[in-house]
Amino acid sequence: MTCIVGVEHKGRVYMGGDSAAVSGWNISQTAERKVFMVGDFIIGYTTSFRMGQLLEYELRLPEYDGPPNMGYMVSWFVPAVRDCLKDGGFTRIENNREEGGLFLVGWGEYLFEIGEDFQVLRNLRSVAAIGCGADYALGALAMMAPFDDITPDEAVIRALKIAGAYSAGVCGPYYVVEADHGAYGVGVAVEAEHGNDSVIRAE
Predict the structure, then answer these.
(1) Three-class SS string for 132-159?
(2) Does the pTM exceed 0.85?
(3) Pairing of strands 127-131, 175-180
(4) Which residues contact 108 (CB under 8 A, 6 or more apart)?
(5) Taking 70 as the threshold, does the pLDDT of residue 191 lie above it?
(6) What are phi and psi of 105, to 5 degrees?
(7) Could you tell me the domains of the chain?
(8) Quick check: helix, strand or coil at residue 47?
(9) What is the pLDDT of residues 96-110, one digit of tens each?
(10) Is residue 54 within 8 Å of 82, Cβ to Cβ?
């Protein structure tokens, strides 16, 4: 299920998600957002609603006043995530290796992908997507880049809609969360409507 799309553009991160909740052959539209703010971070997840709920409501991150960087993500962010998911009964052990789930993280101007084994990656193409609609969304973004004739939030919405047109596990409404370093908000957002979809700008 799911399609989560992230884009780095001119010092900001734009991250969007769909509203599909899939069980076997059944699909419904969830009221729960799969993309949200946790302090200074935008998080968008797939894998499990339980994992997403733990990340949104239980994750406690160490304080840090420096610029966004890979070192903090690997040495501080990921251990906090592991503790959060373990305490919530979500992580599992496979072949003596602890595993979680897939999610994207936007921090300042950077977009990170967290793998099931908790590895942290950044894509030099400044885009990332996860979930069953990821390949369609990435192809759509590649055709729209470098976003000269379309805004990044509109590009994310279009990529999600294209993923929904071709993947049975993706559906609207679609939405985008936008934030830049120093302009974050926790639970405070302004929604700009794109038809039945919306862009959420943290203030």
Answers:
(1) CCHHHHHHHHHHHCCCCCCCHHHHHHHH
(2) yes
(3) unpaired
(4) 11, 13, 40, 67, 68, 180, 181
(5) no
(6) -135, 125
(7) 3-202 (3.60.20.10)
(8) coil
(9) 788 899 999 999 999
(10) no
Beta carbons within 8 Å of 83's beta carbon, 6+ residues apart = none
Q: Which residues pair with 74 in a beta bridge?
A: none
The answer to whether the CB of 203 falls within 8 A of the CB of 188 is yes
The type of residue at 176 is V
| Structure-token pair, residue 177 | 């969360």
Q: What angle do CA 106, 137, 80 make, to 5 degrees?
A: 30
CA distance 56 to 90: 14
CA atoms within 13 A on the CB side of 175: 19
Torsion of CA 53, 58, 62, 63, to 10 degrees: 90
Say how far apart CA 20 and CA 112 lie, in whole Å. Answer: 23
Q: Which amino acid is at 118?
A: F
SS3 of residue 178 by DSSP: strand
**In the structure encoding, which two tokens stand for residue 110, read together?**
């950077």
